[in-house]
Amino acid sequence: MIPMTLAEIARVVGARLCDVPDPRVLVTAPSAVDSREVVPGGLFAATAGARVDGHDYAAAAVAGGAVAVLAARPVGVPALVVEDVEVAIGVLARHLLGRVSPTVVGLTGSVGKTTTKDLLAQVLERHAATVATDRSFNNELGLPLTVLRADAATRYLVLEMGAGRKGDLRYLTGLAPPRVGLVLNVGTAHVERMGGGPADVAEAKGELVEALPVDGFALLNADDRYVRGMAGRTRAQVVWYGRSAGDAQVRAEDVRMVEGARAAFALVTPGGRAPVELGLVGEHQVGNAVAAAAVATVLGLGVAEIAEGLSAARRRSGGRLEVVDRVDGVTVVNDAYNASPESMRAGLRAVKALAGVRRTVAVLGAMGQQADASRARHVEVGRLVAELGFDVLIAVGEGDPVAMARAAESSGAGVAVHAVEDVAGALGLAAALLEAGDVVFVKASSEVGLGAVARALAAPPG
């Protein structure tokens, strides 16, 4: 964060200073929307959500070190009062970005955004000062909060950009115009809100490449036909990456699996070839790694440097194939941050590869926002559970999870199927069924709340 006085910030966002003893006080640290994450010297943005109103925590934030609160009304502590806090934090981020000059990288896709962002950040950090999105803070609040962490020393600003509906990426790229844009894939996440089909998702995701300048780079997944179709929507130079497409300038060759269900491959770029051995679980991570490599390549890093960075990278964000080994030999794989058919398939396959001959238990809930195809997609997951040879399936919730359970049970593969109503039922049953040496996989859309099950199962006894 570039230091700014409260008076300066007020001028930028059109705020009224309220209960501010000295407008010359500097804000020197990043902003936060969670009072528990306030950094001394920072600004607390009081947003009103469906369950919690940040204005109620204004005093706690200031007590925790916030210089002031960006608020929609007076809160009894130093505040910059604006009409719309969300809009104001975006305006402030856009202003700060105009005062620094990092290369802005925007990345989007239906699955893999956070992992790819984490891989890319770890590669770039070895080269120069880098600021990247924390966790999955990729929306109209999370993106400006990331921008506000940048300062004069920041060379690369890596911004994960989420899109729940058409127009979201147009708004985000307006706040932080990218020079480099990466599109991972087009899947079924958020399909219900985008129009109902993959073409609608592609239309929304393609807003990123439309925002790129003529001297920018559009990194497109050559293995995804919907992403390939975005090439005509950008003024930027198109660079293809992938695993199977012959025209990919950045690609993975000779992919093989090594110990711990991790992938190794040869990274090929226009600058040469170098070996990579990933530290992340699952063969699908190859696609994420090659995407990160494509960005690093256009930013001028050499193939050996990129390969070393990818091999050294580790998981940073929780709830995404997060592996915890208990003292009794049970392995808990927490992949419950979110779920779509694509990520569900990848996770199930990764866990089976990790487990080997060990007994496997899947605790699965609903995949949200799947529109009219929801029931069929859950049935497909149930069949895949059986096909892969999972020993136990615990389906959590009514409706589609029940259809998933029935599909697994009717497959004749011998999977032991249980259906429970809620998170409490899932935790109780899983805890009772687990045996020493088991591998348990937990996954559902975030609103189901199965992350709590995974964390409880992974916790040490007592």
From TrEMBL:
Q: In which pathway does it act?
A: Cell wall biogenesis; peptidoglycan biosynthesis
Q: One GO MF term, please? A: UDP-N-acetylmuramoyl-tripeptide-D-alanyl-D-alanine ligase activity
Domain (Mur ligase central) ranges: 108-296
The chain positions of domain Mur ligase N-terminal catalytic read 33-75
Main EC class of this protein?
ligase
GO annotations of cellular component type: cytoplasm
Question: Catalyzes what?
Answer: D-alanyl-D-alanine + UDP-N-acetyl-alpha-D-muramoyl-L-alanyl-gamma-D-glutamyl-meso-2,6-diaminopimelate + ATP = UDP-N-acetyl-alpha-D-muramoyl-L-alanyl-gamma-D-glutamyl-meso-2,6-diaminopimeloyl-D-alanyl-D-alanine + ADP + phosphate + H(+)
Give the highest taxon in the source lineage.
Bacteria
Q: Where in or outside the cell? A: Cytoplasm
Any one of the GO BP annotations: cell division
Question: Where mainly found?
Answer: cytoplasm
Domain Mur ligase C-terminal positions: 319-445
Which residues does the annotation say bind ATP?
G109, S110, V111, G112, K113, T114, T115
Report the protein's function.
Answer: Involved in cell wall formation. Catalyzes the final step in the synthesis of UDP-N-acetylmuramoyl-pentapeptide, the precursor of murein.
Q: NCBIfam families under this entry?
A: murF
Q: What is this protein called?
A: UDP-N-acetylmuramoyl-tripeptide--D-alanyl-D-alanine ligase
Q: Identify the taxonomic lineage of the organism of origin.
A: Bacteria, Bacillati, Actinomycetota, Actinomycetes, Streptosporangiales
Q: Which gene encodes it?
A: murF
